[in-house]
Design goal:
The chain has three helices and no strands.
Amino acid sequence: MSVESILILLLVGAIAGWLAGALVRGFGFGLLGNIVVGIVGAALASFLLPMVGLVIAGGIVGAIIHSTIGAVVLLLLIKLIKRA
C-alpha cells in the first residue's frame, strides 16, 4: 500500500466511525473511540467485503459506505461481546 492509500483509508475510516457511532445509538466509545473502530472496520471491510462479492459503488462514496458497514458490524460485535 502506498502512503496515499493509507491516508485515504484513515480518512475514510474516521468518517465511517463517526457515521457508525451515529447509527448504533446507545453504544459507542465516544468520538475518538468510534473513529478508531471506524478505521479498523474500514480495513476489515476493504478486505472482507470484496471477497464476499459485495461491491457497492466506486470512488470515495463507495469506500465510505463499505467502511461504514464494516464499522457498524464491528461495533455490534463489540456490543455483543461486552454483554456476554
